[in-house]
Structure formats: C-alpha cells, structure tokens
Specification:
The chain has about 300 residues and is of the alpha+beta class. About 20% of the residues lie in helices and about 25% in strands. Among the domains are: about 100-215, no CATH class; about 230-295, SH3 type barrels (Roll). Residues about 50-75, about 85-95 and about 220-225 have low confidence and may be disordered.
Length: about 300
C-alpha cells in the first residue's frame, strides 16, 4: 500500500496578525512597574538615599559639633558670646623708646689738660660718643625722668690716667628744677661708673665733655631730623682742595668754616656725596663734599 507524501504547508497571515498586541504589552509594563517601584516601598527597601528632613539635618549637625553638650535636642549650639575684655587686660600703648623720649646733642669738648694738670688751649678730637651716648640714653629709665620736660646740660670728666669717668656734673644750660636735675645726675653717675676709656685714642690726660639732653613733653616723640639719612662712617682724612668749604648741613647748609689744604679731619658720618667731619680741636663738626677730602 502506498502512503501519500505530505509536503510543507504555507501559512499566509491574515491582515493585522503582524501588529503588536497592546493588551499584552500593557500587562508586561504594569508588572515591571510593580516590581521596580511599588515592591521596594512595600518591602521597606531604599534604592537611592532620600533627602534628609529638617530634624534629621539638625541632629546630624549637632552630632558633628564637638561643642554640643550631651542631652541637647539636636539644634546646633549657638557660638559663645565674645567676652568683653577689661580695660586692664587690653594691650597697653607702647612706651616711647629712649631715642624718642629725649634728644641728645653731639658731644662738645670744653677743656682738656695734660699729664701735669696744665690746661691746654687746643684739644684733640676724641671718639667718646659711641661709648657715652648709650649711658645717657639709659636715663630714660631713671625715676626722675618720668613725664619730664626740659633740658639737662650734662658734663663728664674723662680721666685717662685711671681709664674711667672721674666725675659727672650739671651744666649751666640746664633748665630743669635743681632737685630733678640732681636726681638725673645721680642716675648718670651710676651709669658712667662702668664706662672704660681704655680703647679711646687721646693726646691729653683729662677732658671735659658736655652733652645737652632735651626731655620732650609726655606724648610727644622725637621726630627724625634732617640728618636721619646719615649713615655711620669713621676714619681720618686730609683736605685736598686749596680751600674746602664746611657747611652746617649737606649741600645747602650755611658755611661755618673754610679749611686749607692739608688740614686733617675726623670723619663721623656720610649723607650721599657729603661727609660729616670734625675739623678742629674742640670737636666742631660740619659737612664737606667728598672730593674735598679725597673720598
């Protein structure tokens, strides 16, 4: 018996069979939404951090603040109020320095004597200022100098035979009351007791040198003068010009002396092209142009 062979069949879709079934798509979408969104909330799960509430933020800030005390409600502690400083605790105004409390003139040699005690008509210039000035500045710490106003003429006797200051005296130019001036001189004597003259060059045995100390009114500090730009200088020089003009101030100062060629001077300072020199035996000072003394 012969079997019939069945060949492949061909299915021709009907119109509309190739369109998606919207009902099925909607069902699948609803199921996915329930699984991805609704179910985590029902189960108490958090997929992303939630925005903290106001109370939670306050509690977090309080726990992070090391100054919060135990038992706080969670509100951030207010910064402590600044305590008023009592007047005594405030920084005091700086006291004036000795240089600001009073002005000190340049030293003036008024007399000198040789080893036999004979008074000499001409005195050589000695470099005493570097050693003596700090001692005079120390008078600002003397009790008698507090709130002082006036002038003290202070003289010192230099005895090179003993290598010490033999006496400290009050000069005639003093304008301070006698009791105040005497108290300052007593302080000065204590300061000059420790001054040694061993390193100071000299030709005579004894010298008398005077300073003028001008004490300024309280609250008024000394202001820099025209010589504030002077830089220290030292040494000896000889006038090289036929005539060197000496002025009381650099450049435009008044003429105070004229020095002949060959005059020896002691250099004490410099301001630009001008040099301050001591040009006579009494220690008189003035300014000369640098080339006049070969500088």
């Amino acid at each position: 018996m012969t079997q019939d062979r069945i060949g492949p069949s061909v299915h021709v879709p009907k119109p509309g069979d190739d369109q998606p079934r919207l009902v099925r798509v909607a069902v699948i979408t609803a199921i996915g939404f329930a699984v991805g969104v609704i179910w985590p909330k029902v189960a108490g799960m958090k997929l992303v951090p939630s925005v903290p509430s106001e109370a939670e933020g306050a509690a977090s800030a309080a726990s992070a603040d090391p100054q919060s005390a135990p038992g706080d409600t969670g509100a951030p502690a207010a910064p402590p109020a600044a305590k008023a400083q009592p007047a005594s605790a405030q920084a005091p105004e700086s006291a004036p320095t000795p240089e600001e409390a009073f002005k000190i003139s340049e030293p003036k040699i008024t007399s000198c004597r040789d080893a036999k005690g004979a008074r000499r008509e001409r005195c050589d210039a000695i470099e005493i200022d570097a050693a003596a000035r700090p001692k005079i500045l120390a008078l600002s710490a003397c009790p008698a100098a507090k709130d002082l106003q006036g002038t003290l003429s202070l003289g010192i006797e230099l005895d090179f035979a003993s290598g010490k200051i033999s006496d400290v005296m009050k000069g005639k130019s003093t304008s301070l009351p006698d009791a105040t001036a005497d108290a300052l001189i007593a302080c000065a004597k204590r300061e000059f007791m420790t001054l040694s003259l061993s390193d100071i060059q000299h030709e005579q045995s004894r010298y008398t040198v005077f300073y003028i100390a001008e004490f300024l009114p309280p609250g008024k500090a000394a202001t820099p003068d025209a010589g504030a730009s002077v830089t220290p200088a030292s040494g000896h020089a000889t006038v090289g010009w036929e005539v060197a003009i000496v002025r009381d101030q650099p450049k435009d100062g008044e003429i105070v002396a004229r020095l002949m060629r060959g005059t020896k001077v002691v250099v004490t300072g410099r301001d630009g092209d001008w040099y301050r020199v001591k040009y006579d035996a009494k220690g008189a000072e003035g300014w000369v142009f640098r080339t006049a003394i070969g500088m």
